[in-house]
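Two entries, shown back to back:
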Amino acid sequence: MASSYSPGNCTADTDSRVLPQVIKVSMCLILALGLPLNGLGLWVFCCRLRRWTETRVYMANLVAADFLLLLSLPGALLGREQGAREGPLCRVLQSFYYVNTYVSMGLITAIAVDRYTALRFPLRARAWRSPRRAALTCLALWLLVSGAVALWASLLPADENFCFGRCHTRDTRTLAFSLLFFFLLLLVLSFCSGQVLWHLLRERTRASPQEAGRILKALRVVAANLATFVLCFLPLHVALMAKLVAKWTEATDPTIQHIADFVRVAARVANANCCLDAISYYFVATEFQEEVGAILRMPWPFRGRMRGAPVGDPSDRGVREAAAMESNAEGAAHKALQQVAQGPTDPPQGNSFPFSTASMISSLPAHSVTLDL
């Protein structure tokens, strides 16, 4: 089929092919699965779990970013329809899409850094880490990404396309910045996750059977989180890199069209991360399982209460478990302090984690792509 590609419209010669229909079906499935799951997650994290921790702050922001990203996807569906025109609403939805995509990646990386810090420097982390500082980190990330997107959109010429499905949605500088930001996050995430995995593997060889089981769970979580991030976001940025190279080399129209199709497919794979995050909340976070399970078992008029206890009551099992996990963390830190006080001042050789890595593991909540460590 002859190409009818034009710079202003990336979808001109694809509407008669199967790919656009596959894209629409996949987006509808992502919306149908992601909206209720992330809506439930947002409600549980913000309304049911009253005790805020550092990781819960990150997770609540992450589920909010995923939920807002999903709300922008209908704009992508409408923006690719024949005869669709760019307007203020499409620009807002496109901005929402960019902001929440990169905020989500940044939050996943922040959770990995928080996890690495808590395990690698347990004593210092108790002074560094706090829900307030986690909230400030999230706020800074939201402002940084939102400001970058707003600045870029304001600098575009009036006749420049800034909507879904348009070839000029990202210029060369924006593509380069997106790639730099992503690969920086990937580098940090890979380092933190790799260090945690390495230390957990070493600790597992000398742990008791009970602790070995908890360490194995943590290993699976960290590995799954890293793999999910790579599988969901790396294809999109490889596609964007190919698009950047095509711009620099002035590739032929058929090549540009194939790259545009690659970008569209990879973007849907990246959008699927919203669903995987929400599923991870349930399978990894024990408190999330308790809350959701209890809510689903209760008759509808009584779902505002759980096991006869008011929301946020200290008798709630989730709150008691959180208190127990904090006690475990304090006990591990106390043992480490005793060892420091009784032993030499030189740094320990080999594993630099505290006395019980499993105790520290059990004290750290989850993420999705990064959840429960």
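entry 2 starts here
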Amino acid sequence: MITKGAVVDQGRRWQLTSRDLELLGWVGRWRGVTSPQIARGFDLSVKVVERRMRALSELGLVEGRRMLADVPRVHWLTRAGMTAVGIHGDVARPKLAELHHDLAVVDVAHFIERNRRHLVVTEREIRRREPNPAAGHEWRLYDGVEMTAGLGTGGLKFPDLASVRLEEMDVVWAHELERTRKDVPRLTRLMLSYVWSDAVTYVIYWTWPELYDNTMRAAEAANASARELGRGPAAIGVRVWEPSLLDSLESGTA
């Protein structure tokens, strides 16, 4: 564990703090996050977050890169950063082709946590708890709640996010964010992978407005198949996702 200070930022001396470990642990939940997202997650100013990210970068615990001109610098953990907070597995780096989706998933998680008051687990956390998906499918969601990754016609499936409410720890929600159009039969098969999971209670597909009708058709088909298979009532819902929903959280109108 790193305990010594480091000289960074034009000679200023930084030392790793408990808050830095919290920041590192949170960054490690994602493939990449921006300073505004970190600031929102911790109720800090963007300026403070950027200063800490520079210090942690000088310590070799995070990397940061401006991947697109219209997107803030994206941060992720190095191997040393993962070790510092006890995270195992491969180092995850953001991929340009998936950047917009991955950053939007972080925003959706913020909305679910604050508007719906859910506890959220990310796809990276799910995969870390499932070291060998081919051999088994159970992972733990907070206080002993177990979930099985989706099986069935869609194959093994890991959601973008999963969540529970504190008052309903046995009710597990899986969340997917749709940013690109898929044909309805393929999307229906993917949705049906959750139908075969006994531990997934509900599934929400968050979709861009222009994809809502297409996603809804797939959900209706999947729910119809679920009823025919005796898998209970309609479990798959569709919600429109727009970044402006985050503004409603800040204004208290969500």
